[in-house]
Amino acid sequence: MKKLPSTSQIFIDLAPEFGAEVILDDSYGYAGLIKFPNGIKKYFKYNHLDVNTLGSSEIARDKDYAALFLSKFGYHTIQGDTFYSKEWAEHIGSNKTIDKAYAYAEKIGYPVFVKPNNSGLGFGVALAYSKEELRIALKEALIYDKIVIVQKAYLGMHDFRIVVFKGEIVCAYKKTPLHIAGDGKKTVQELFDQKKQKLKESGRGMSVELEDYRIQFELKRNKLDNNSILETGQDICLLPNANMSQGADGIDVTEDMSQKWKEWAVQVARDMNLVLCGIDVLVKNDIKGEVGEHVILEVNHSPGFQHYATLGDMAQKRVQTLYRDIFTYLAHE
């Protein structure tokens, strides 16, 4: 068996402490069953745990529905609309086909974000500055889902993830999209390969390649290509979204988080009826003081921690503590 996914390995390590048994799938170890001494059985699949209820998880997983209900509670959500593949539009009797997305983008103004409604890990998320880029982004997004969201782009804001478990803050970290910095010698390709190798050495992977259409969008806008040599200090953002599985950098800001922001995050989790969640929020300034200008990107019902755990000893300790608390929770639910 290959190296186990982090969640599976942590559960294997924790099981003896609880007198529990963990049974994994035979091929990859991505799915498993936890058998507790009291007869309780809990399943998991990668980061998906038997913690949140199914209904709440499904709403959170659906970006459009999640934004709808969050807005009904008075939260600031991103302006956007959904559009459907031709087949799905016919099935549900809607005229909001993908071709209607162009007029909507013109209405709210470019640039716009394009996202598959139910996809995760940043797959299919693109920033389009023109109709042609939008056409490509919509086509790619449809690979991941039959429902696609077109959203207003809130540029110049800071991307944070805040994790809540059982009404308590677990951690918070600031994310910066994948970028490379020039040294006056290396090409874009060489700098990208160097970045990827450093992430691998730190225990992180990166599920994106330089030929990704979104990266090529960014290079073209900066009049660059894979063979261009960046000047010393020239910093280029390669992806518009700050997803750590796609090379984003992270900074642990848990200790800097104000009580006001903690209360805000806990209330979001309660209103979404989620025991465990990761709240992705764009913030104008920071999360140190009052809850200032912000918009909620999404609420993740099954947050992963393998990338966050690489941010330092304290981050790793928080993850270990969280999974022990989750194990305890599962044993009694």
From TrEMBL:
Residues 67-328 form the ATP-grasp domain. Keywords: ATP-binding, Ligase, Nucleotide-binding. It holds the Pfam family RimK. One of its GO terms (molecular function) is metal ion binding. This is Cyanophycin synthetase. GO terms for cellular component: cytoplasm. GO terms for biological process: SOS response. It comes from Candidatus Zambryskibacteria bacterium CG10_big_fil_rev_8_21_14_0_10_42_12. PANTHER family: BETA-CITRYLGLUTAMATE SYNTHASE B-RELATED, RIBOSOMAL PROTEIN S6 MODIFICATION PROTEIN.
